[in-house]
């Protein structure tokens, strides 16, 4: 029985490469000279430290730009609310989304069942397994999920006949 998995994974090594490029640009840019702006990553959390809201907004643009350069989807970033840090600086947490959370998985399964497609969808931890009798049915399921306009980047892997 043909099947495939829907996953959402972001390569953390490429995230590190994007952050290193961003640090180099912050060190060399004229508008960041003498500022205490920094960016660092611990597991799936990126911490941005900026002097003020304007520099924080510029660092957002840099982060998204370097993500695109490294062929990562900026939709994998979840920006938390900025908070005041010591010495009039602004700190913000940015989460790199890994895996499909249960609410999104349930939404995808419900949409597939509502369309009465000839496939079965099973939630397996932080990924979804779609199986059906025909390869065409599976391709229709992929097209349906792509048309759902989900912000989080999804990959369709492990296709088996």
Structural overview:
The mean pLDDT is 91. The strands form two sheets. Strands 2, 3, 4, 5 and 6 form a five-stranded antiparallel sheet that branches. A four-stranded antiparallel sheet has the order 7-8-1-9. The chain is an alpha+beta fold. Helices cover 37% and strands 29% of the residues. It is elongated. β5 and β6 (90-96) form a beta hairpin. The chain has four helices and nine strands, in the order βαββαβββαββαβ. The relative contact order is 0.22. The N and C termini lie close together (6 Å). The protein has two domains: 3-8 and 99-160, 2-Layer Sandwich (Alpha-Beta Plaits), CATH 3.30.70; 12-96, Alpha-Beta Plaits. α1 (12-28) packs across α2.
Care to give the gist of this entry?
By secondary structure, the protein is an alpha+beta fold. Helix content is 37%, strand content 29%. The chain is built from 4 helices and 9 strands; from the N terminus they run E-H-E-E-H-E-E-E-H-E-E-H-E.
Number of domains: 2
Low-confidence stretches: none
Shape, please? elongated
Beta strands, count: 9
- Briefly note the CATH topology name of the largest domain: Alpha-Beta Plaits
Which CATH architecture of the largest domain? 2-Layer Sandwich
Amount of beta strand:
25-35%
Helical proportion, percent range = 25-40%
How would a textbook summarize the main sheet?
A: 5 strands, antiparallel
* Secondary structure tally, helices: 4
Radius of gyration: 20 Å
Q: At the fourth CATH level, what is the homologous superfamily of the largest domain?
A: YajQ-like, domain 2
Distance between the termini: 6 Å
Average pLDDT, rounded to a whole number, is 91
Order of helices and strands: EHEEHEEEHEEHE
State the CATH class of the largest domain: Alpha Beta
Structural class: alpha+beta
């Amino acid at each position: 029985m043909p099947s495939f998995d829907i996953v959402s994974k972001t390569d953390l090594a490429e995230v590190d490469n994007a952050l290193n490029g961003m640090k180099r640009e912050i060190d060399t840019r004229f508008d960041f000279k003498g500022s205490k702006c920094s960016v660092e990553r611990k597991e799936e959390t990126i911490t941005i430290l900026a002097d003020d809201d304007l520099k924080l907004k510029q660092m957002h643009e840099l982060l998204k730009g370097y993500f695109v350069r490294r062929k990562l989807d900026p939709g994998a970033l979840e920006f938390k609310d900025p908070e005041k840090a010591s010495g009039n600086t602004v700190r913000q947490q940015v989460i790199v989304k890994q895996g499909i959370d249960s609410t999104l998985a349930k939404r995808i399964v419900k949409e597939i069942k509502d369309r009465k497609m000839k496939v079965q969808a099973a939630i397996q931890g932080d990924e979804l397994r779609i199986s059906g009798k025909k390869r065409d049915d599976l391709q229709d399921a992929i097209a349906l999920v792509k048309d759902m306009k989900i912000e989080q980047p999804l990959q369709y892997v492990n296709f088996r006949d």
